[in-house]
Amino acid sequence: AALGGAALLNCFPLEVIGDAQLLLGPFLYLPFVLLLPVPWAVAAAGLALAPTLWTLEQPFALVLGMAEAGVLAWSVRGARLPSPAAALIYWLFVGWPLALWMSLGLARQPVDLAALDALVRGTNQVRAVVVAEFLVRYTAVGGLLSAQPAPPARLRDVVVNHVFVLAAVPVVLVATGLAVLLRTTEEREDRTVLLERAQQVAREAGQV
After folding, report:
1. How many C-beta atoms surround the C-beta of residue 55 within 10 A?
2. Quick one: CA dihedral 15, 4, 28, 65, positive or negative?
3. What is the mean pLDDT of the chain?
4. Tens-place pLDDT, residues 65-86
5. How many Cβ atoms sit within 10 Å of the Cβ of residue 98?
6. For residue 52, which of 119, 106, 7, 85 has the smallest C-alpha distance?
7. Residue 20 contacts residue 116 (beta carbons within 8 Å)
8. Rounded Cα–Cα distance for residues 74 and 61 (Å)
9. Whole-model pTM over 0.90
10. Contacts of 34 (CB under 8 A, 6+ apart)
11. What letter would DSSP give residue 18?
């Protein structure tokens, strides 16, 4: 049911400043990713993100989300790395570079829009992982989704998770500020071009 809800939410992405699309589905499917083996985690992410093939009209979110799910599931079981740290490492070294490459090289988006979209997407995913980690480790959600009791939380993991939660707030504020700045700059440039064009047309009409 939660995966179906995540897929439904991903049918209605939120358009934020700069035409970047924000997905809410990750907040529902990522708790499953943290509890499932790698193949099933990747499949769960693929199922939840499949609607983005139509809503976003490109496979980028699907590819990035399935790759992230594999990394997260492996990190929880293999590397014993806190999932927020694994998510941040993934997006810094894989997700953001890959998102920029796909947007610039395949979709031929302008650099500013591609950078904004990658920043919004990665920031949203990291925040969703932080929420999923908190739900699985410190609430009854983990027990409802998994038949095995959750292992006791280590002090290091608790500290890391709280640091990531606190760090998410300024990151979101910076991302929002950057989006506003890019949008304002773009609108100012568009107005300047339109004004120059109107003045040129007026001069040409006066010479006739």
Report:
1. 14
2. negative
3. 81
4. 999 999 999 998 876 788 888 9
5. 17
6. 7
7. yes
8. 20
9. no
10. 41, 72, 73, 76, 83, 132, 133, 136
11. G
